[in-house]
Amino acid sequence: MSEPPTIDVAVVGAGIAGLSAASELAAAGCRVVVLEKSRGVGGRMATRRLGEAVFDHGAQFFTVRGRAFGVLVDESRQAGAVDRWCDGFVRIVPAASGADEVLPAGDGHTRWRGVRGMTDLPKHLAAGLPERVEVRTGVRVSGIGAASDRVRITLDDGERFESRAAVVTTPVPQALDLFASGGLSEGVIDPESHRLLSTVDYDPCFALMAVLDRPSLVPPPGGIQFESAGPARGAIAWLADNRQKGISPLPALTIHAGAAFSRRHFDDDPATVTALLLEAARPWIDGQLPEAVLETSLQRWKFAQPTSILKDPLVAATSAPPIVCCGDAFAGPKVEGAASSGMAAARWVVRVLAAE
């Protein structure tokens, strides 16, 4: 690892926001270290295997609306990392009659996926970073503070180092905890910034991965979006057939629980949650559950979706030294919003460092 004085920017989190920030910082000539607690990059752009079956169990797709993200996606498509999935999904919504209405797939707006899974896009970004960017996985940050004109980063194993600036892409409640642990109290952080960051909350989400013994009954193109009062009684928000999606050689179903269900059952026994979600998804599983479902795995996302979006793409906690928060809770949700937020945070840091 580089000696602390040579690090310009520490980026906390190697999801799409952190990697987009690192790419932008590297293009400006900064020396960067990216710190990620998981074993791999991607954050909630997550792909997992159960035997031969492959599942996206975080973000399921992404769209492109802005130019900067469009350039990134086009380059990634040419490199073989991403591809078009479809132009929309079947939606099931409650009707006034009390029955549920099935709306056909397709609204004309392209949904994109990773070629082998949603981690393909962040992996492609990470692989393209130059040598002056070090990506460290499997390391957990325990505190973010300030010492004179430097950011002080403390890791769980006791290691400490300093940088000229920091980009923090963790879910906002976690960022505030890291600031508090590092000595950046409410009185040190800009008061308006602290107020804004304190308003951010997230819904949790269960993602149940189920390997099936035969193809599912999910209609083409392999996804169903549910309103909260749909036929699954609010238990399911999203159902994805990973085989139809083109990433799994075996029938593999991802069942995302709705926010209310996930909050209500967040601390329940995993076996109980699994049984409830399988029962809710029964209409789209061909055969009796004990025989049709070969294997399951339950993922519990504590900070799955921001419940509200801040209007600006970043919030600066401090400007001397520059410490900035960004991610999918800033100026636009989901994958593109997070990537655009990371890019904006990086540009802000470059401007502040250049003015020193």
Q: Please, how many helices?
A: 10
Can you tell me the CATH architecture of the largest domain? Alpha-Beta Complex
As a whole number of angstroms, the C-alpha radius of gyration is 21 Å
Q: How would a textbook summarize the main sheet?
A: 7 strands, mixed
| Low-pLDDT sequence parts | 1-5
Helix content: 25-40%
Instruction: Write the H/E string, N to C.
Output: EHEEEHEEEEHEEEEEHHEEEHEHHHEEEH
Total individual domains: 2
**Number of strand elements:** 20
Mean pLDDT level: 93
Q: Report the sheet-strand fraction.
A: 25-35%
Derived structural class: alpha/beta
Spatial sequence of strands, sheet with the most strands: 7-6-15-16-17-14-18
| CATH class membership of the largest domain | Alpha Beta
Span between N and C termini? Answer: 25 Å
Shape: globular
Describe the structure.
With 356 residues, this protein is of the alpha/beta class. It folds into 2 domains: 4-45 and 122-200 and 310-354, 3-Layer(bba) Sandwich (FAD/NAD(P)-binding domain), CATH 3.50.50.60; 47-117 and 202-306, Polyamine Oxidase, Chain A, domain 2. Helix content is 27%, strand content 31%. Strands 7-6-15-16-17-14-18 form a 7-stranded mixed beta sheet. Strands 9-2-1-13-20-19 form a 6-stranded mixed beta sheet, with helices on both faces. A 3-stranded antiparallel beta sheet has the order 10-11-12. Helix 1 (16-27) links the parallel strand 1 (9-12) and strand 2 (32-36). The model is unreliable at 1-5 (pLDDT under 50).
